[in-house]
Design goal:
single chain; 87 residues; mainly alpha; 434 Repressor (Amino-terminal Domain); 7 helices
């Protein structure tokens, strides 16, 4: 869960929401929001769904962003290198 805290904080700030406001919108506690944003606490999918619904950002996009590094590694293993060079 390395990208989620950063994405969460950036989305919250872009919507001009405080930690307290996001907590209220998501139905979670302020300490929970703060700990997840700080990367001090992981979150279950149901918790992430509440947070990113409150931020009006689809959870599937969050999970895709979170796993882009892994996806790139897998694609690199299965797709021939010349495919990326255009030839």
């Amino acid at each position: 869960m390395k990208h989620i805290p950063v994405l969460m904080k950036e989305l919250r700030k872009s919507k001009f929401l405080s930690v307290e406001e996001l907590a209220e919108l998501s139905g979670l506690s302020r300490p929970t929001i703060f700990k997840i944003e700080a990367g001090d606490m992981g979150a279950r999918l149901v918790t992430l769904e509440k947070i990113f619904t409150a931020l009006d950002f689809p959870l599937w996009k969050v999970l895709m962003i979170e796993h882009l590094d892994e996806i790139a590694l897998e694609v690199g293993k299965t797709v021939p290198k010349h495919f990326f060079k255009g030839g």
